[in-house]
Amino acid sequence: MSYIAEPNPSAYAGVPFNYITDIDYGELDYKITGICFCKKKWWWVMGIVFQYWEPFMLIDTSHESNYSAAIGTSVGNIPSLNGKNKSQDVADPSESNFAQSHAFLIPIIPNICSRWDYGAWWSEVDPTWQSDTLSAIITPESTLFANYASQMACSADAAATNVGFPLDALPWCIGSGGSSYPMTGHVADDDIIQANSTAAARLIYKLNRIGMICDAAAKCGCMYTPVWIKSHYKMAAVRPNVSSVYPLGKSAMVYCAGQNPGFS
Q: Tell me, what's the pLDDT at 12?
């Protein structure tokens, strides 16, 4: 999983994603762990179990609508869909962030595992990404976690995530990023880097929810997970600077250096 946060589009405009330099191939951790038997209609087939981390999706986030850091250009700004980040109004230190998000499949290791992903996404054409109210259409369970106890539980997830072990039993949490809900670009966090990372993580959850990502962790094929298994995903920042790989929801303090350059 790769991720591009572009809170300042002018900083890296015109620099598209590079398959060679923007992926840490040392993180694939490819290994063979054993054999398996999978049922194919009327018979069983023996296979080999491979284990590795696959960079399969590129996500970019931007407060400027229709700007994609992944392709390095804008396809036409729509002011009414622009987001906002804290730096635009320093008079309000509690201001939240909003980011549009775009996803692109990048099949680096095709044909090794059977999977059916349809991950391409452009949030500007998705009304549920713009509206916290509309997002409840695909996340009706979100009201169950809109309480103090559920949100306090996210502190435990944040602590576990920051040592490398996200708590899958708390799918409504994204570690230090806070809540998985609402599943929109609105993030109640005044840290631009953390908020953009959370928006990208929410898009992963959303694509799982609507069946556009098929989790390849299953031994035979892949499995659809409308309630995501977040420990099955990692991120690495790509723009403005390439970072090391980290679990979803890791504190941005670990990788934020140089990720929000000013105008030059």
A: 43
